[in-house]
Amino acid sequence: MSSQVTAPWKPPSVTVAAVIERNGRFLMVEEEFDGKRVLNQPAGHLDPGESLVHACAREVLEETAHRFKPTSVVGIYRWYYAPKDVTFIRFTFAGELGGVEEGRALDKEIIAANWYTRDELVSKASMHRTPLVMSCIDDFLAGKRFPLEVFSGEYA
């Protein structure tokens, strides 16, 4: 038996994100995170009793005022954020963009929602909230799409 003391394991935090592309540009949000202005896909946490698909559509609406219907999974990602000892499991979706709810107030953490090309995002790498920002975009551009049925009925 080891005499080394280890911290108790913390369950991961489940998040959802959307890669939304239109005419070669990606819808991103600028927000405050740990006292710093960052760029991220529209994303957020899964609420109790909520499906992953519904959570993604809700987060996109709350953060960008755009209606979004997830139609496929781009990928499932794991990221460990050492400063807060948190592991994130991120379910990233692609889908169909609906209309914009003009005048809708965005989540209080959101500074702006803007469209960027991949090259513009690469040039702003120091602003990315996590390393997952580019991983998700590159997987999307590589054509990675998995059917929502991978969630065994939870997706409906």
Radius of gyration in whole Å, from Cα? 16 Å
Mean pLDDT: 92
CATH topology: Nucleoside Triphosphate Pyrophosphohydrolase
Give the proportion of residues in helices.
Answer: 10-25%
* Regions with little confidence, pLDDT below 50 for 5+ residues: none
Sheet with most strands: strand arrangement: 5-1-7-6-9
CATH superfamily: Nucleoside Triphosphate Pyrophosphohydrolase
Beta-strand share of residues: 35-45%
Largest sheet: 5 strands, mixed
What is the rounded distance between the termini?
47 Å
SS content category: alpha+beta
Number of domains: 1
Count of separate DSSP helical elements: 3
Counting DSSP E segments of at least 2 residues, the number of strands comes to 9
* SSE pattern: EEEEEHEEEHHE
Overall geometry comes to: globular
* CATH architecture call: Alpha-Beta Complex
CATH domain class:
Alpha Beta
Provide a brief overview of the structure.
The protein is an alpha+beta fold. It is built from three helices and nine strands; from the N terminus they run βββββαβββααβ.
